Amino acid sequence: MSKYKILLIEDDDDQRELLVEIIPFKSSLNLEVIGAINGKNALEKSKESSFDTVVTDYFMPDLDGLAFIKEFKKNAANFKIPIIFMSAFFADLGTAGNRDLFENVYFLDKPFRVDDLIKKIDFNIKSQAVSV
Fold first, then answer.
1. Candidates 3.40.50.2300, 3.40.1440.10, 3.40.50.2000, 3.90.550.10; correct CATH number of 3-131?
2. 18, 54, 66, 97: most buried by Cβ count inside 10 Å?
């Protein structure tokens, strides 16, 4: 069974640690979840390893979720990697002017149920496997 790598970017230590532990446990797929404390830390980790899906918060110190996505997608190898964007403030994003930026980006409103996040992760990975 293939092991899929998830990059989870969340600045709240408790929430990040909980999600890093519970996602692989509850998913139907064989997942390894790597946590990052902010977008800057996540960019460093993305240079060290490739990921099958990225889950990111919006508001974070140093480099927020939107800035992370812009930087992450500058690398052509990352452009098609699905990203799940978690936030309670999607109205602030101005998605109309950033259509290319939001290709393969899926939104999840906070607060959310962990099961809903896992369903999005599993769906994205299975969709990628079918399209390859």
1. 3.40.50.2300
2. 54
